[in-house]
Amino acid sequence: xxxxxxxxxxxxxxxxxxxxxxxxxxxxxxxxxxxxxxxxxxxxxxxxxxxxxxxxxxxxxxxxxxxxxxxxxxxxxxxxxxxxxxxxxxxxxxxxxxxxxxxxxxxxxxxxxxxxxxxxxxxxxxxxxxxxxxxxxxxxxxxxxxxxxxxxxxxxxxxxxxxxxxxxxxxxxxxxxxxxxxxxxxxxxxxxxxxxxxxxxxxxxxxxxxxxxxxxxxxxxxxxxxxxxxxxxxxxxxxxxxxxxxxxxxxxxxxxxxxxxxxxxxxxxxxxxxxxxxxxxxxxxxxxxxxxxxxxxxxxxxxxxxxxxxxxxxxxxxxxxxxx
Length: 324
Description:
- It is a single chain.
- This protein is α+β, with helices and mostly antiparallel strands.
- It contains eight helices and seven strands.
- It has helices spanning 22-25, 42-52, 56-62, 119-128, 137-170, 178-210, 218-285, 297-320; strands at residues 4-8, 11-15, 31-38, 70-73, 78-88, 93-103, 107-112.
- Helix 4 (119-128) crosses helix 5, helix 5 (137-170) packs parallel to helix 7 and helix 6 packs antiparallel against helix 7.
- The longest helix has 68 residues, at 218-285.
């Protein structure tokens, strides 16, 4: 049903062993066990909750996919809830995948809702730093958090590139397209989702740093958890700045559209005024009463000159005011 690993005295001794052997290994003081569960049922979690002494509330939280990122500290263990992030460049949407972890003195149990949360990336980080395995469960927790925070960074970095492309389109010659408007909306929505994921991580990692002594070598692993905390702060600040920037881009889009509409209205109004003058003159001379030059060619030429002079004058005035 899940993956298993056994570390003894800082060395990986076995993996892929039967789940039934987990209860025997965790009884050994020198052993550290990792057990992964993907889409478990309530019965699956209850079967291990008694052996590990898991709190009922923690088990319930692990089965819920809408938990906020957090670290709850119980008497016999800690409960960690995190989300990895994946940004889709094509659609501009952000997908988050939930994972929970039960942390005891010599065991780590990860619970995933789906395969989208890549546990392989977590295992890869453990294998890249085998020398840290001597620090016990803290080493496993660090690898898990390192993967989660790196996914946040990759997502916000991809979003930053999208925002830069939108910035260039704001002051372009062509009007803002419907696609740009949709992309701006999706980016803002994704940034809000990412912020909800990243912000609570500060409290969770900070709590883990303060309670690190319960899960392993506090003095040796503290710098590594501090590095993760610094990454969380950077991701949070970056997300906030991008969210503000996207909001400004959206407001600029609306302002530019309003300015273009005003320019069009000025041009239409100016041409309407130019056309109205000949209409006024010809309409006036079309009255059924005698007028200067009535019945003579001088009347035609007088009206024609008035039309040309008035139209050219209005054109130059509007041109000088940049209405045309």
